[in-house]
Amino acid sequence: MNLTTKELYLKMPENTVLIDAQGISLKYADKQILQNISLSIHAGEIVTIVGPNGAGKTTLIRALLGLQTIDQGKLYKKNKLRIGYVPQKIRLDPVLPLTIKRFLTLTANYAMNQIEQVLLETGVKSSPETSIYHLSGGEFQRLMLARALLAEPELLVLDEPVQNVDYLGEAELYRLISDLRKRYQCAVLMISHDLHVVMASTDRVICLDHHICCQGEPCDVSLHPEYVRLFGSSKTLSIYNHHHDHSHEVDGSIQEHKH
Questions:
Q1: Is the whole-model pTM more than 0.70?
Q2: What is the domain partition of the chain in residue ranges?
Q3: What is the pLDDT of residues 144-177, one digit of tens each?
Q4: Fold that domain 31-91+153-256 belongs to in CATH
């Protein structure tokens, strides 16, 4: 079942719509990057965009956030929408000394108790005075999440949030994102390539290949012919779902759960 944008929109009250895009298109150097994209993001839901490399996923997110100018279509954002954004890449000059605390206060001054709270919530174990260049890939991703949470977002936008994370830590990071959604009562819009985890940790999937091939609940999208064309048969997809008495940290270490 492929729900249309109109059907998805009507499932929730109008005042829960955070972003609504209608027929947006974008070209770059005469190449069509996005074509006739229509979608809505509602309060409280986790929406994941999947698609092959070069499908326009990052461009779509940037367009929805107003960071990329569209050529056609209409884009609505809730008034004064608070957004926390974790980009796919961030360029930092290693010559510039940056501690965790300084990194979190580059764009605004936050009280130390606010900083300590988001570090605790995201599982960053290093001291606020630690250089960010001493962090592992996984802990830096958690730091990026902490930075986004300082905005107390209504919408948390994540572009490949588990990049540079050990595969054992990926599921823990996705679980953290789900917990943060509940804690902050925010919507989550993310791009991911990890189909096994995504299909078990999202409310809605949007399959993108310059246009929206299909969208809907994971179990429905995984059966859609366009999804199968891009990613293969759903029979070969083992959806991640397990329960045990320990967890894998982002660095691969094991944390035993106390009973």
A1: yes
A2: 31-91+153-256
A3: 999 999 999 999 999 988 776 666 667 788 888 8
A4: Rossmann fold (3.40.50)
Question: Cα angle vertex 193, ends 191, 195, to 5°?
Answer: 110
pLDDT over threshold 80, residue 211? yes
For the residues of the chain, what is the DSSP string, one character each?
----HHHHHHTS-GGGEEEEEEEEEEEETTEEEEEEEEEEEETT-EEEEE--TTSSHHHHHHHHTTSS--SEEEEEE-TT--EEEE-S-----TTS--BHHHHHTSSS---HHHHHHHHHHHT--S-TTSBGGGS-HHHHHHHHHHHHHTT--SEEEEESTTTT--HHHHHHHHHHHHHHHHHHT-EEEEE-S-HHHHHHH-SEEEEESSSEEEEE-HHHHTTSHHHHHHH--GGG--------SEEE-TTS-EEEPP-
For 57-95, the pLDDT digits (tens) are: 999 999 999 999 999 999 999 999 999 999 987 887 777
Q: What does the alpha-carbon distance between residue 46 and residue 248 come to, in Å, rounded to a whole number?
A: 23
Q: Give the angle 122-256-117 at the CA atoms, nearest 5°.
A: 20
